[in-house]
Design brief:
Number of strands of chain A: 10
Largest sheet of chain A: 5 strands, antiparallel
Largest interface: A-B, 39 and 39 residues
Number of helices of chain A: 12
Oligomer: homodimer
CATH architecture of the largest domain in chain A: 2-Layer Sandwich
Helix content of chain A: 40-55%
Strand order of the largest sheet of chain A: 7-3-10-9-8
Order of helices and strands of chain A: HHHEEHHHEEEEHHHEHHEEEH
CATH superfamily of the largest domain in chain A: GAF domain
Strand content of chain A: 15-25%
Radius of gyration of chain A: 26 Å
Chain lengths: ~350, ~350
DNA sequence: TGTTAGCACTCAAGATAAACGAGTGCTAAC
DNA sequence: GTTAGCACTCGTTTATCTTGAGTGCTAACA
């Protein structure tokens, strides 16, 4: 953790004013603006000197000689860590939003993925940025329920529920059909032997045991057992929900079409998106991590900030929701929204 | 069906040349260009006269006085119906595409939704436009398999497979737990009574019968039975896959950010997207429908064309895949791609 | 009568230049 | 240490000019 002792309180105050102003005005901010708008009993010249200092120290930068200052990543970092206004905890979503949210909140949503998707959508609405949701898959979850269902002569369906309430299913094509009795026996056997196991935890012996207990010829059960294992393994590839992609285009920093395109493509790349969220596991005090600009490992977002919140219940990590926007984002609003969702979605 | 007798073959030839050229060059095309590039033994002046006629008849228009001509919706219509080159049936996807496609085509994909999603992605890659896929939900499908699975003390999972191989599942919260035996009996009863039914086809009597046969107190089974019905009903709300949204920004007609935003928002609106695909049910000879510009009912796409293909197997409508792009799209390429996917995905 | 060469005309797009103004750094006075 | 004042910078805006692709029209031609 770096210290900011090099800055006296006046410099801090000025830096905060500059960033606050830039976040709302979207324009480089000059000394005179600060002097006028924020009554700190200083002339523009004084502020000018301070701003020159701040630039030299790397907290601000100038797009060109005769322009105002804009914050650097370092500046934002200090802002987020120390300067930002206290969170607005009474964030008031619009009427329409409330209706929408209530719709989702009906207790129909027991399934984690659904909940994550709904939460992401809410966050994106509240913030007007793009939100990404991912149910936790870092901790390997174990099987809570498992069933094999006959569908038709050539197909069976494997359904697995994990202990974090995600559901996976997989259709398996079978060459040689099994009788209903054989199948239901197999289902019970699999369920008994595999419940509690994790994907990385299933040994060859277990498989052999299942095949043996099933009382069916090896070549007839094996495809199905394979399907079951596939289905369990599949659970490691989390689904990712990206909501509010259109919001990107609201912000002037993405008026450049090629920039917007790069990001849109990133949004459609699940693997990269997962990386983006996973870089943020060592969550801070509140489980919220802010990555500013080049602090992100993915180069496409080096002029974006990513704010992620990790949600857990009873010590179990449920998932992560992230917000992605320009470095000039309203950090306060974003963090408030993520906190709002935490309060709203998770029982105390 | 309107007739185009008003056009002699020379006008047709010129119209075709103009549209062909415009589709590739993206620029309004002038008489001189046509005279030079397409050797039709006519001077630019003659072509100029013909183009003036074509404009008067509404097949072409001019962005401004001293510019070349661009096709109108009416022009595109005639082009698609009569003038367009025969399909390129030997469409050769790139090496990378082939690998990708083979990956999808592994016989893992038995589930319809997955297949539709994969097909949409392929189409979007082949065409560089945005593709939309939707498994058919217009014909109500009937239940092919159904099972109720205990998950934990307070939750059961309902899984339904329809006769078009879509899978739906729904988690149901129960207040008063049922024993495993009760649950499996209920599962069998539901399965026996509901298999073959459609969502709009389930009567109150059937529900009462299920409750009666279950041998469990009404208030304990009813939530679960409700969950089952919900799950079946849910099948009517088809999932829609939109692939290649980023491709939008490749085309100069969407350089205008606000236009792009409008479309991106549309893409995230499942209800509207479904409407877009459903307007195209009275499929033509090959099951492919082209809607040009204002022919679409949705105003946001009045400067786009939508090409949809309906796929069926053994007379059963499986689903629809659509491509959306500027009216100046490469209709030939798009239709070829949709046909390609038909050949590739559907066994003969 | 249909085709073509020629020419004046139009108009978007690009280039050039001037005026503007927001903002700076520096200096000197307070 | 603070501030008023001033010269300077440089992106933005506005106006003006030039260019060139393309047209419509007319008159001559086959």
């Amino acid at each position: 953790m770096m210290s900011y002792d090099e800055l006296d309180s006046r410099k801090m105050m000025i830096l905060k004013a500059v960033i606050d102003d830039y976040i709302t005005s979207k324009e480089p901010v000059g000394s005179r603006t600060i002097a006028k708008k924020y009554d700190m009993g200083l002339s523009s010249a004084t502020i000018r000197n301070e701003m020159a200092d701040l630039e030299e120290m790397g907290y601000l930068s100038q797009p060109h000689t005769s322009a105002g200052r804009i914050p650097s990543d370092k500046g934002y970092r200090l802002y987020v860590d120390k300067l930002m206004n206290p969170l607005v905890t009474d964030l008031k979503p619009s009427e329409e939003d409330i209706i929408e949210i209530c719709g989702y909140m009906q207790d129909k949503i027991h399934e984690l993925n659904q909940m994550v998707k709904a939460a992401s959508e809410i966050v994106s609405r509240l913030t007007h940025y793009t939100a990404i949701g991912m149910a936790n898959n870092e901790i390997k979850h174990s099987v809570k329920a498992l069933q094999i269902i006959p569908v038709d002569l050539r197909k069976v369906l494997v359904v697995v529920v994990l202990d974090n309430d995600t559901i996976k299913n997989q259709m398996v094509k079978v060459e040689q059909t099994l009788s209903t009795e054989e199948l239901s026996r197999l289902s019970v056997i699999c369920s008994e032997l595999l419940t509690g196991s994790r994907a990385d935890n299933i040994s060859l012996e277990m498989i052999n045991e299942i095949v043996g207990l099933s009382g069916v010829e090896r070549e007839r059960v094996l495809p199905i057992v394979d399907g079951v294992l596939d289905c369990i393994k599949q659970c490691d590839s989390a689904e990712i929900y990206t909501e509010g992609t259109a919001n990107l285009l609201e912000h002037p920093e993405f008026n450049d079409v090629s920039k917007a395109k790069t990001l849109l493509e990133l949004f459609n790349n699940e693997a990269e998106m997962a990386k983006l969220l996973q870089g943020c596991d060592n969550a801070g005090a509140k489980g919220i991590v802010v990555k500013i600009g080049t602090e992100n490992e993915i180069t496409q977002v080096s002029d974006c900030s990513v704010v992620t919140a990790t949600y857990s219940l009873n010590g179990v990590n449920l998932g992560t929701i992230g917000v992605i926007g320009p470095t000039r984002m309203d950090y306060n609003k974003v963090i408030s929204a993520l906190e709002y969702v935490r309060r709203r979605m998770l029982p105390e």
